[in-house]
Target: P-type Cu(+) transporter
Amino acid sequence: MDCPSCAQKVDKSLQRVDGITDATLQPTTGTANVTYDPDRTSEADVVKAIEGAGYEVVGGSDAESDDEDNQATDGVDIAPPSEVWTSPRAKKTWLGAAFVTLGLLFEFLLTGQNITVASVLEYPLHIADVLFLGAVAASGIPVVRSGYYSAKNRSLDIDLLMGTAIIAATGIGYFVEAATLAVLFSIAELLEDYAMDRARDSLRELMELSPDEATVLRDGEEVTVPAEEVDVGETVVVRPGDKIPLDGTVIDGESAVDQSPITGESVPVDKTAGDEVYAGAINEEGYLEVEVTSTAGDSTLSRIIEMVQGAQAKKTESEQFVDRFSGYYTPLVVVLAILTAAIPPLVIADPVSVDLAGYGFTFASDWQTWFIRGLTLLVIACPCAFVISTPVSVVSGITSAAKNGVLIKGGNYLEAMGGVDAVAVDKTGTLTKGELAVTDVVPVGDTTADDLLRRAAGLERRSEHPIAAAILARAEEAGVGNLPDPTGFESLTGKGIRGEIDGETYYAGKPALFEELGFDLSRARRETDGGVMAEEAAESDDGAFAENALTALEQEGKTVVIVGTESELLGAIAIADEVRPASKRAVERLHELGVERVVMLTGDNEGTARAIAEQVGVDEYRAELLPDEKVDAVEELQAEYGEVAMVGDGINDAPALATAEVGIAMGAAGTDTALETADIALMGDDVGKLPYLYDLSHTANGVIRQNIWASLGVKALLAVGVPIGLVSVAVAVVVGDMGMSLGVTGNAMRLSRIAPERMGGETGQETSA
Model:
């Protein structure tokens, strides 16, 4: 199947089979997924019904697993690549084209040699006529055969229209027109097959990412087996340059892994023991042993491919409009074609010359001329280019996004994302990394930064708080060794910790803890008109914090941990959930692309929210929100601005994601919940993909509109030109059918050239072509 009219023909045939409970037809992938009751019908009956519509069934459960033509893998199906130019249909077309060429040669150039060779019902047949009839037989019979199946299934589609036109033209002796129509339409069909096959290539590329085989450790030996035969819990070996065959966890080895096919990350990610890896990712340099965590059919890559395929079944508003319009368009133009062939010869007794805008036209009176013009309108009645204009754009956009780490779960979401007026963004894990890290180390007095980190990390060794993990990570990163082992460790609930080091009690905690110990921090925490930047926060000459030093850190939304004893301050360490490098540029780019409002929604406190909002440049922020209050915020944005996209983690923000027109989940790779709940999933933790997503969707909407109106416009112009003799059958086929089908497909393929660029160390800025 290569167009929706093909799918309708198959659908009508399947509807007559008792026992079929559901049928999903996808001409963009060339597949029909049929569910049936085995007590009432069989697979053979389903296949017979499809073949009764004129199509061949490839694959299926009875097919050999090693059949090269069977592209079904783990429930993911797509038509196999077509040998378009060497297929039986193509050979018949080339034969017909040769007959037409020779026929035209005898008809117009070698007229002296165009002798009569036979007669039928006293009608003389010349050499040219025989050649034209040969062309009709070679190229036209497949068209007429398809038209027969269309009539049988009561489907008013292009095959029925073209088959009728070929038979009618042949029947009245218009052999040139019949042969030309048969050959040109066959060539058009081949070109459409080729164009649709190109559109399917992007999905095939996704399927080819998944390795067919895996090297498994069994009984101490390496065994190469098909990937689908590997069970959860088994260990697979992945050498440098190999693709990782299945989702799993690294249990031995370390390497850089290119997981761009899954997450769209442009830079390989270092993997060591305990890290997750995904099927389809490429092991760059080291040896890895991976414990399998999901089967081949349940891997992240398989789910992505399956969802991309399923996404094409969710029709956009534009597709629904096109389906409704074509339901009226084709019957109307068919009626006009019949009237054009029948009425003018009855009402025009003699040729009539008229002047239209300075151009003279003659309206013929003979019925043969009007019959041909009626046939031409019959060709124009086919809405094929118009109907495929949206599906090919959706396929191109969705598969292009998937290859760049963005999973769009329906054409309707692709269209909706391109029309959003405001974007609501969660803070933690979206604009920020969602992990605490040390941002500032501020020693005072004679204490050095390393000494401060050593004492703090030594105390925090006994703590399980996330702040402790951040301080220990910073100490390790800074190369601070010989951490002391405190004794008498005690957690001071809500304040901090204390412990003895070398016989002296040290404290680490909030400024309030040290104020209770008798330290005066008012100078360091004095409110100012705007605060000072953290970089200006330096130690004072008297061994205390500089003026406003702590205030500057707190106004940036950072948590301040002071370290010291009961009599001496060693310094302060600031900890924060770091802003992603791409966040600021992503917000700027969304504004540049036309998004009216970008709003940050967070459950964090006012101070932290304000600091992050100022840093990333959002238009406004709303802090201290509970999940239901985020829903209220989204509804308020909808009332004020229009359509809203909500970006969150896919779990905690689920109510808000569901409320927005488009819900976008961050970091969905390997996360079942996020993949299932979001309308769109960013497979990697890369907020820089948001501008790319909006640009792709916005451009896709433009391409869809261009395709629809260009198809309609060309059809309208051709239809107007037919009655006045400006449009021939050849022009109707070459321009109205073949030309427009290739044009809308080529225009849709432009979407594959929109790609993210890097911003702030992450992929983000998009390139449009």
